[in-house]
Specification:
With 713 residues, the chain is mainly beta. Helices cover 3% and strands 37% of the residues. It contains 3 helices and 49 strands.
């Protein structure tokens, strides 16, 4: 086997750097095995790769997991709006690190076609400085929207298979002359600009004040009002072509939105959570409207159709109109600003906790409101969970604004306690409230140190660090599983949960039995709070601060010193006289119970390596080595444990033929006893440090004469 190099997993190298840096304070008490590799999970970015159910991220240190706050952690903060003009009735979407503001009006009756975009600096974890200045990009086409548009909808759809992203715009209106069926789309380019707008299949009917969202590569256009200004209950859906972005046709879902008896679906809010679409609030239309406080949800079929809408048992506290919907993937629904209890804009924000099994929600609670009331604004959410409210108006015919307000998804970080304004008799004003229980599941973690199909990792430890400030009021327990090629079906069943002890920054470590083989690892944290404000909310939360998975490193046999001892050595080795050769090596990794082999060769091949096909004359096959093979000294042992002192070889050898040679010393493992040295099939953490070389001269000393030239002054 050629062992000159092995591909190293970048993840492991990065993980080691993180252990030394960001999590040193946390894992300083862990056993520091020289033979372990650690895979740490401690930052927002690392935890964000997992799945949340009624749990959320926090930013007290470099990132933690906790129970989901029912509400926003910190006040809305102003974002960068440089370059963005005032707009109402616009559409806003997020795609590939950019935020887009599309159309809308500058004042009532002055609809626009322009599109602006801003880069989102995803490495900045605070609202301040997260947005770049806004710049114009490809405007909506004049042949589709000759006089501009407002109360339209837009979505962005990312196709992972084709690595293409398209931005879609649906319908809308021009006051008072037109309502559109048009659907247009443009490709999102790498620099954030938009390509050419193209027309595709129109909506079956004209719509404005509708809602658009994407779920599982399917676009849904929900509710809105028709040419007569009346609310509609139809829902249309389509799946664009992932290569071209075109939509071949729209379908209407089997089930229409429920008939509520009051209110409708013009300017309703919508979001999705756990595979369900939620629609809440809305009006009966533009003439003498009534407004809805109700919420409904549906779980689309695999083909995208919706066959049933279910009325949520918990209505909004009051009716809601021209609000904006959003949801965190952990199950928190939001209705952001809009007109509450009538048609006057407010800055109130309501939240509810969605149940992943039934779809029903908790009661709705008021959380941190916006300072400036607004409706006909637009809200988008980025991949990290930051919410962006863009534009809006202070009244239907009132002043348009260009405000960009941002809500951070992370608590802590100097922001203090959750400032939820829940109207609960038992709650202290301004105190935090959380989901009463929830869990967090990590992604599948590849713990193979060497990225080769024949290599299987040996799991040695699993450790986590927690903060539990009330031993009677909260618990956090951890469970794990791993994938082993030796286990039927691959995945070993989930372990029983292990309770974490109370205290601040307390580390719990589980050591695995020797020989536990697992190429992938996954853990799950269960959060529970027993000190409840009501039956559906808790007053405190435990924190999962960090996680660390240890695996035994492969062997790392390293060749060290190689010397020749005699009176004239090492400049010249005498012929036909015995000299002493000394060699040392060390094992810096783990050691399998296999055949350890060390050897010293000499050869005239400068870069000789003692394994096939690099075999000098007389050494072909090595099975067994012939007497003419320049094998000075072989030594065998059954094992060479990590942490032992350097392994030393000493021998006396007589060179009989003058010449220039290379002494080559090697240490390695031989897995198969039938393979004679130096055939090796044990792979190591570093495959390039098993050999050391020393150039020697036998029987003569090279003399360098001065260079003599003629004819030069």
């Amino acid at each position: 086997m050629d062992k000159t190099r092995k591909p190293w997993r970048t993840l492991v190298i990065l993980a080691m750097a993180v252990v030394v840096g960001a999590t040193l304070f946390l894992f300083a008490a862990f056993p520091a095995w020289a033979a372990q590799f650690f895979f740490p999970f401690t930052t927002l970015q690392e935890f964000n790769e997992g799945r949340f159910y009624h749990t959320a991220l926090a930013l007290n240190g470099d990132g933690e997991v906790r129970l989901l706050p029912i509400g926003l952690d910190q006040p809305w903060q102003p974002g960068n709006n440089n370059g963005l003009p005032p707009r109402a009735g616009l559409a806003t979407v997020y795609a590939n690190g950019y935020l887009y503001a599309i159309g809308g009006d500058e004042y009532l009756g002055s609809e626009k076609r322009d599109v602006f975009y801003s880069q989102v600096y995803t490495d900045i974890l605070t609202p301040t400085g997260r947005l770049a200045d806004w710049e114009p990009t490809t405007a909506l086409p004049s042949d589709v929207y000759p006089e501009g548009v407002w109360q339209h909808a837009a979505v962005a759809l990312v196709f992972t298979d084709t690595q293409k992203t398209f931005l879609y715009v649906f319908g809308g209106t021009k006051v008072p002359s037109a309502v559109y069926t048009d659907v247009i789309y443009a490709e999102v380019l790498a620099d954030g600009t938009l390509g050419e707008w193209l027309e595709t299949s129109p909506l079956p009917d004209a719509r404005f004040g509708h809602t658009g969202l994407v779920l599982s590569d399917t676009i849904y256009v929900i509710g809105g009002a028709d040419l007569s200004g009346l609310s509609r209950q139809e829902v249309y859906y389509a799946r664009p072509d992932p290569v071209t972005g075109a939509i071949s046709a729209w379908s209407q879902t089997t089930a229409m939105l429920p008939d509520l008896g009051v209110g409708g679906y013009h300017q309703a809010a919508a979001s999705f959570s756990y595979g369900r679409i939620y629609v809440y609030g809305g009006s009966t239309g533009t003439s003498g409207p009534t407004y809805s406080p109700y919420a409904s949800f549906a779980h689309p079929e695999p083909d995208g159709d919706i066959t049933l809408w279910t009325l949520n048992l918990e209505p909004l506290p009051v009716s809601c109109f021209a609000s904006e919907g959003a949801a965190y993937r952990s199950g928190l629904l939001l209705a952001i600003a809009g007109a509450w209890g009538g048609n006057t804009p407010q800055g109130d924000v309501q939240v509810a906790l969605a149940d992943g099994e039934t779809g029903q929600t908790s009661p709705w609670y008021a959380t941190i409101a916006m300072d400036i009331p607004r409706f006909y604004h637009a809200v988008a959410q980025d991949d990290a969970g930051f919410l962006y409210s863009v534009g809006g108006t202070l009244g239907y015919g009132g002043e348009r604004i260009n405000n960009v307000d941002i809500a951070s998804p992370y608590g802590g970080g100097g922001g203090g306690l959750l400032k939820t304004k829940a109207d609960l008799d038992a709650a202290v004003s301004g105190a935090p409230i959380f989901a009463p229980d929830g869990y967090y599941t990590s992604r599948y973690i590849d713990v193979r140190v060497i990225d080769e199909p024949w290599y299987h990792a040996k799991i040695s430890s699993f450790a986590w660090n927690t903060t539990i400030t009330d031993s009677e009021g909260m618990t956090l327990s951890m469970s794990y599983r791993y994938y082993s090629h030796t286990y039927p079906g691959g995945w070993v069943p989930w372990s029983d949960p292990v309770l974490s002890p109370p205290g601040v920054n307390v580390t719990t470590t589980l050591d695995f039995p020797s020989g536990t083989v697992g190429d992938y690892f996954q853990y799950r944290a269960f959060f529970y709070a027993s000190r409840l404000v009501t039956a559906s909310v808790a007053a405190m939360t435990p924190y999962l601060n960090s996680v660390q998975i240890g695996v035994l490193s492969p062997p790392d046999l390293q060749a060290m010193t190689l010397t020749v001892l005699c009176e004239s050595c090492p400049e010249v080795i005498p012929v036909d006289q015995p000299v002493q050769i000394e060699f040392s090596g060390i094992n810096k990794g783990s050691s399998p119970p296999l055949n350890f082999y060390a050897a010293i060769f000499y050869t005239t091949t400068e870069n000789y390596t003692p394994w096939p096909p690099d075999e000098p004359p007389g050494c072909e096959g090595y099975n067994p080595p012939t007497v003419t093979c320049p094998l000075v000294l072989p030594q065998y042992r059954s094992d060479y444990l990590e942490g032992l002192p350097p392994y030393k070889m000493q021998t006396v050898y007589t060179f009989t033929v003058p010449g220039e040679y290379w002494l080559v010393a090697q240490v390695d493992y031989n897995n198969t006893p039938l393979h004679s040295a130096p055939r090796y099939d044990i792979d190591e953490i570093i495959e390039t440090n098993n050999i050391t070389r020393l150039q020697v001269r036998v029987g003569f000393k090279r003399v360098y004469l001065p260079l003599v030239t003629k004819g030069w002054q």
